[in-house]
């Protein structure tokens, strides 16, 4: 649960920082009509700017953050036959998926892998040393095909847009709640008092947690789609074998929270807040031919 709180906290913190900055700059004063009622059109624009800024900033910094937080070593000049095989495998899969060759990297850790990047033709796919050591080449091939499918499907961008829409409505409704409390409870007739800002921030935090269930639902759905993509690129049996191998991992290492939604393996979070479906459900979906 701590991981999901940190994940949500990162997104909420960006929104809160932008909100406070707008407050200090006086931009939020544009929300009031005649200093009495909320201007809904202005509020919606204001909310969209804040909501999409956080998600877009995270998207454009995603590769940089991944490299730094995970200590990813990029394979630019292969130093071993395994690195050469990994590069060739990703290149073949990228061509088959119709995308440009992504950067390929390796990071230290227990079995896991992820894909990230601001668009499908400027992506990064990385795999852990633990995964390379614990899986055979067929299984690694399937895992990389899963990540390539994420890239080809444009999942990073789609998830960012969904997060932006969710953020927009979180900010929008939190300001409405703050306005109602300010007027009804504290009887402020003109402008906004301290209660508006305090209530808005509290409502923003609570609504942000609830709205994250929508984002996590999409994240789980796209895992099934990436598994199906891997089945097409590498073979269904290879992907099922890779997922079964992950089930056998005694101490799976979670990715940092900002990367969790882009990994191959989830961390067993509560169902509504989990970024990945249970491995047994993913295996069953593949066996049904989904």
- H and E string: HEEHHEHEEEHHHHHH
CATH topology name of the largest domain: Zincin-like
Strand content: 5-15%
Major β-sheet, in short?
4 strands, mixed
Spans of at least 5 consecutive residues with low confidence:
1-7
Radius of gyration: 22 Å
Give me the count of strands. 6
Strand order of the largest sheet: 3-4-6-5
User: Mean pLDDT, as a whole number?
Assistant: 83
What's the CATH architecture of the largest domain?
Answer: 2-Layer Sandwich
Share of helix among residues? 55-70%
Q: Please give the CATH class of the largest domain.
A: Alpha Beta
> Can you tell me the CATH superfamily of the largest domain?
Metalloproteases ("zincins"), catalytic domain
- Structure classification: alpha+beta
The domain tally reads 2
Name the shape in a single word: elongated
N-to-C span: 30 Å
The count of helical stretches stands at 10
Features of the shown structure:
290 residues; alpha+beta; Zincin-like; 2 domains; two-stranded antiparallel sheet; 10 helices; 64% helix; disordered N terminus
Q: What features would you describe in this structure?
A:
- This protein is an alpha+beta fold.
- It has 2 domains: 2-61 and 157-211, no CATH class; 70-155 and 219-287, Metalloproteases ("zincins"), catalytic domain (Zincin-like), CATH 3.30.2010.10.
- It contains 10 helices and 6 strands; from the N terminus they run H-E-E-H-H-E-H-E-E-E-H-H-H-H-H-H.
- It has helices at residues 2-25, 40-60, 62-70, 81-97, 129-134, 137-152, 155-185, 194-233, 236-247, 279-287, and strands at 32-33, 37-38, 73-74, 103-107, 113-117, 123-128.
- A hairpin with a 5-residue loop joins strand 5 and strand 6.
- Helix 2 runs antiparallel to helix 7.
- The two termini are 30 Å apart.
- Residues 1-7 have low confidence and may be disordered.
């Amino acid at each position: 649960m701590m991981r999901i709180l940190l994940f949500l906290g990162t997104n909420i913190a960006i929104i809160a920082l932008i909100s406070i900055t707008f407050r200090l700059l006086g931009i939020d004063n544009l929300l009031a009509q005649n200093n009495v009622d909320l201007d809904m059109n202005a509020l919606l624009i204001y909310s969209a700017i804040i909501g999409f800024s956080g998600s877009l900033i995270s998207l454009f910094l995603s590769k940089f953050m991944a490299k730094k937080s995970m200590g990813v070593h990029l394979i630019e000049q292969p130093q071993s036959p395994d690195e050469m095989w990994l590069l060739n495998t990703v290149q073949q899969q990228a061509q088959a998926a119709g995308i440009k060759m992504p950067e390929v990297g390796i990071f230290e850790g227990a079995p896991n892998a992820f894909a990230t990047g601001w668009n499908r033709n400027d992506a990064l796919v990385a795999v852990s040393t633990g995964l390379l050591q614990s899986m055979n080449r067929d299984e690694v091939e399937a895992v990389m095909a899963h990540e390539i499918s994420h890239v080809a499907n444009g999942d990073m961008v789609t998830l960012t847009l969904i997060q932006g829409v969710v953020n927009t409505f979180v900010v929008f409704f939190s300001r409405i709640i703050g306005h109602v409390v300010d007027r009804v409870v504290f009887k402020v007739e003109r402008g906004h008092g301290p209660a508006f800002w305090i209530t808005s921030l509290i409502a923003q935090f609570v609504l942000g947690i609830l709205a994250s269930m929508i984002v996590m639902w999409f994240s789980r759905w796209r895992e099934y789609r990436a598994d199906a993509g891997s089945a097409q690129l590498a073979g269904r049996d290879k992907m099922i074998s890779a997922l079964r191998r992950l089930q056998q991992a005694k101490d799976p290492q979670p990715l940092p929270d900002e990367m969790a939604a882009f990994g191959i393996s989830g961390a067993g979070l509560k169902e509504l807040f989990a970024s990945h479906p249970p491995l047994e459900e993913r295996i069953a979906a593949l066996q049904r031919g989904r």
